[in-house]
Amino acid sequence: MDIIAALIPISIVLLVVATGAFLWALRGGQYDDLEGPAHRILHDDDDPAHHAAADLKKND
Questions:
Q1: Which of 4, 8, 33, 57 is 20 to 30 A from 48 via CA?
Q2: Minimal CA–CA distance to 39: which of 59, 60, 57?
Q3: The CA-based dihedral angle spanning residues 15, 19, 25, 26, taken in that order and rounded to the nearest 10 degrees
Q4: pLDDT for 4-47, tens place per residue?
Q5: First and final CA of the chain: distance in angstroms?
Q6: Are 54 and 47 within 8 A, CB to CB?
Q7: CA 31 – CA 15 distance, rounded (Å)
Q8: Within 10 Å of residue 43's Cβ, how many Cβ atoms?
């Protein structure tokens, strides 16, 4: 029974830490663009059309 008294506060502390880490990542913009990196790896960096499209996107 003593172990339960120790594990409950430890689990609450871990829950608070995990929630804090999630909120920190959320506010830091980690989940803003979920599809961009997946599509970016498919583009050829040496393609001039890709650079032109990226420049147009930056100017908007």
A1: 33
A2: 57
A3: 150
A4: 999 999 999 999 999 999 999 999 988 888 888 777 777 766 66
A5: 63
A6: no
A7: 20
A8: 13
Alpha helix stretches (DSSP H) within the chain: 2-27, 36-40, 48-59
Nearest to 16 by CA among 24, 26, 6, 27: 24
Contacts of 31 (CB under 8 A, 6+ apart): 25
Q: What is the largest CA-CA distance in the chain?
A: 68
Rounded distance between C-alpha atoms, residue 20 and residue 14, angstroms: 10
| Amino acid letter for position 46 | D
Q: What is the pLDDT of residue 44?
A: 65
Residue type, 29: G
